[in-house]
Write a structure and sequence with these properties.
It is a multi-pass membrane protein. This protein is an alpha+beta fold. The protein is built from twelve helices and eight strands.
């Protein structure tokens, strides 16, 4: 009884019993599921990944054909999911920051427009917004022969957005190396300027020098190599455009909906983060004669980030998960082409759903880890 009377021992026993219960629960589910599959004549395992898929996909970032395997289909869906997630996070963060700052503008018109934007788009269901951009906007565009165009390089019609395709030449690798070295030089300059400011208290204007470090070597390399990047333009041939790059309507509609919806939520996060910073910080910066733009960039935003980052992490995770709504308009993401078409053709429900869940879990855990690392680094710098 003495062993039982110790709280630590009881807690350990309860934890062990809980773990055993969870393991037993999933073991029973697994054995029951595999038994039912055997009765239906469906073999379990991942051998189906080497079988021929036999269906096409409208957007692929890697080579793919109807003779490709289900494993290739998984990779295509995975890359399309990562593409829409990365683009959505970048666009939503940029737009959300702008709207959030505009929401606190001293200009009444700008602040009201930002408020109207937030209240409209954050209160409309995301799926409804996807349908709006796809069916009401993009599907009402003209046919290819009557395309809306901007010069000879951009064409917009019901089949998508046609833009020039970059064609890097052999010398382009040299330009990339020069650019990376310039970025490294700018980082070194920033570190030196920060240390100089800590020692002397004088802030050095590094922006002009940084631009010169990046632009001048890159421009010289570009001229010396004769322009190592060419462009392939789209042209109307018959009933459709050939050449260039195409942004399919499904991708454009999904990206617009995810960006507009998530940005409205991020905007409120930005607003709350800025308001969490004490007014005395702003007043002290103004008393020192610091311009309003620098006050926002150097005083308010760095302190507001500790409030904003945890909430923005949740929005990034939601955006990745919400991208699975792509199946409603036929965008070939992982859920559509792998957990949808591939599952219907193979019947390997357990394996396909487990792989799909594992992908989303891995992506979101990676985002959480990166954001937590950044948050910890921000808090460490403040201390």
């Amino acid at each position: 009884m003495r062993w039982w009377n110790q709280a630590g021992n009881r807690a350990l026993l309860f934890q062990v019993l809980l773990i055993l219960s969870v393991v037993l629960f999933f073991f029973l589910i697994g054995t029951t599921a595999f038994s039912n599959l055997e009765k239906q004549g469906i073999t379990s395992g991942f051998s189906f990944l080497s079988q021929k898929a036999g269906f096409g996909i409208i957007q692929t970032l890697i080579s793919y054909s109807e003779s490709s395997t289900y494993g290739r289909t998984f990779l295509v869906g995975l890359l399309n999911t990562i593409l829409i997630s990365v683009l959505g996070i970048i666009c939503a963060t940029t737009l959300g920051f702008l709207i959030g700052v505009a929401r606190l503008s001293s200009n009444w018109m700008i602040a009201k427009l930002a408020e109207i934007y937030i209240e409209i788009f954050r209160n409309l269901p995301l799926l409804l917004q996807i349908f709006f951009w796809y069916f009401a906007v993009l599907r009402s565009l003209p046919l290819p022969r009557s395309s809306l165009q901007l010069g000879d390089w951009l064409f917009l019609n019901i089949r998508g957005i046609y833009i020039p395709r970059p064609l890097p030449q052999q010398e382009f690798a040299l330009l990339g190396i020069i650019f990376l070295l310039s970025i490294a030089g700018v980082c070194a300059l920033k570190i030196w300027a920060r240390k100089y400011q800590e020692k002397t208290g004088t802030e050095l204007p590094t922006l002009p020098v940084s631009l010169a470090i990046i632009i001048i070597p890159s421009a010289i390399t570009w001229l010396a190599t004769g322009g190592p990047l060419h462009w392939e333009l789209s042209s109307l041939q018959g009933l459709n455009f050939k050449g260039g790059l195409i942004v399919i309507p499904e991708l454009a509609a999904l990206l617009l909906a995810l960006t507009v919806y998530t940005a409205s939520l991020i905007a409120e996060i930005v607003r709350s983060g800025i308001l969490s910073v004490s007014h005395t910080q702003t007043e002290a910066a103004r008393a020192l004669g610091i311009p309003q733009g620098k006050i926002l960039r150097l005083v308010i935003i760095p302190q507001a980030m500790r409030v904003m980052i945890p909430q923005m992490t949740s929005q990034y995770l939601n955006l990745v998960k919400n991208s699975s709504l792509a199946t409603a308009i036929g965008y070939p993401d992982l859920v559509s082409v792998f957990a949808g078409t591939s599952l219907n053709q193979t019947g390997q429900a357990i394996e396909i759903i487990a792989m799909t869940m594992g992908v989303y879990l891995t992506i979101n855990l990676t985002i959480s880890w990166l954001m937590n690392r950044y948050n910890a680094r921000t808090l460490l710098q403040e201390q």
